Amino acid sequence: MVSELLKLNSEWKLKVRESFAINQLTQKAIAENLSISKSSVSKFVNSQPIAANNFIRICQALDLDWGTASQEEPQNASLIKFKFKDADFKVNPGGEIPPQEIVGRENLIETIWDRLQQQSLILIGERRIGKSSTLKKMATEAAEDMLPIYRDLEGIRSPIEFVEKVWQDIELYLQQEGKATRVRNFLSQIQGSQFTGFRFSEIAQDHWKKLLTFAIEDVITLQTKQLVFIWDEMPHMLENFADESAMEMLDTLRSLRQTYPDIRMIFSGSIGLHHIFKNLQQSGYRNDPTNDMFTIDGQPLTLDDATELAASLLEGENIATLNIQKSAREIAEAVDCIPFYIHHLINQLKSIDTEVTHSDIVNTVEECLQNPLNPWKMDHYRERIDNYYTEDQKPYVLNILDLLAINPPISFQQLWKILHSDPQTNNKEMSRTILRLLMKDYYLTQTGSLYCFRYHLVQQYWRLSRGL
Ligand SMILES: Nc1ncnc2c1ncn2[C@@H]1O[C@H](COP(=O)(O)OP(=O)(O)O)[C@@H](O)[C@H]1O
Ligand SMILES: [Mg+2]
How many Cβ atoms from other residues are within 10 Å of residue 196's Cβ? Predict the structure, then answer.
């Protein structure tokens, strides 16, 4: 039986907004389609209670599971802890996880908000380190006076597609259709008839810069919150663009940040922007379009948070251990506290019938790294070298990584002694350049004068997969 009134769990607000965008719906359209009042839809979106039958129908229209969307929220911090311990965490490597299952990241999120007081920023970091999860959690938990708009840009192939998404997101945030007049007026003007749709027509294509400016003007003039665009997989999108469009986009976004100094942008993504810039420079691009942005280097979870995630997953999956805290910590350490691999490893440990031991953990990691079916997608570390390094650079990359895979941290002098004896890697300055690039691409790190792999897991993969 459902109770008479239901309300949206506020942690679902972001998901609801995404569903509006994905399904190309507005509050007005839902109200009309379902023959319910606009105020009910507005209440739904704002997590106020509405009639259960309307709640369920709206969720259905938005492709959302109404049961989970209406789940009660914890009332205070001690309840959150209680809920956390009792929640049935399930492994879901790489999948979308609900915000309440995104563990930790409080300090990082606080650092991001602090930094946003001053400037826009770029959140970089190795693939699957947890950047998107952090940004989604941040958007869900934003303070009342903040307006974060999260959008994954993967798959967007042209500037106009990007602008259309930005505008759709903005219209949804403005909530009452018709308010965002600049974009609609401009589209009406260029097409010669009233524009009433939710998708741009082809004619809009040549006007993307104007449309982007109008969309941003609409949102900054029509509401008072601090606007933060969170654009995930930005480098991926730019890579999909023709070079000229990518350059224009970067310049346009920079000039928007200058013209409207109150808006903030976060670019995130796993492909380093330096690769995108390098390609654009080859096409003659000379600008430095992100020099006004602050870069934050995303890290794995802290050991405590990684252990907490592992413990919750072991518990949620009913995996037997002798001492859950101890096993959780061993799991966290075995995968360098990277949450994606914690999910994966525990997924694998499910198939062990007896109590999981330390050697089960170590052996399972090794098996997964060695498995030619590449279940942890580690081959990416080898494959991307072919994409991002030139033919001249590749022997340096492979020699350096091979050396570091089987040695303790070593200095440049020690590395150079070995590199220069190979005719393919006997240029000293090139060796230094490659070391720096490998650090930018998260393979290596430098402590004092010593170089080593940034992640033990990647070192282990490299050693095993290359038979070293
Ligand atoms: N803080 C976290 N708590 C729990 N699981 C996480 C966390 N961060 C990431 N994950 C898991 O790792 C996967 C990859 O994380 P994601 O945020 O997509 O990484 P990135 O954006 O850096 O590539 C997620 O799908 C999720 O399963
Ligand atoms: Mg991501």
Answer: 10
Residue 102 near ligand 1, beta carbon < 6 Å? yes
Positive/negative CA dihedral, 7, 10, 11, 13: positive
Other Cβ atoms closer than 10 A to 226: 18
Query: What are the beta bridge partners of residue 123?
Result: 268, 296
Report the distance separating Cα 3 and Cα 238, nearest Å.
48
List, for residues 137-162, the tens digit of each pLDDT value.
999 989 888 889 999 999 999 999 99
**Count of CB atoms situated within 10 Å of the CB of 199:** 9
Give the closest residue (by CA) to ligand 1 atom 14: 128
Decide if 85 is inside a domain: no
Which residue range(s) make up the domain with 422? 380-465
Q: Is 375 domain-assigned?
A: no
Return the structure tokens found at 297: 């280097």
Whether 340 is in the pocket of ligand 1, judged by its Cβ within 6 Å, is yes
In 3D, which of 77, 49, 62, 116 has the Cα closest to residue 261? 116
Residues 106 and 175 in one domain: yes
Inform me whether the pLDDT recorded for 430 exceeds 60: yes
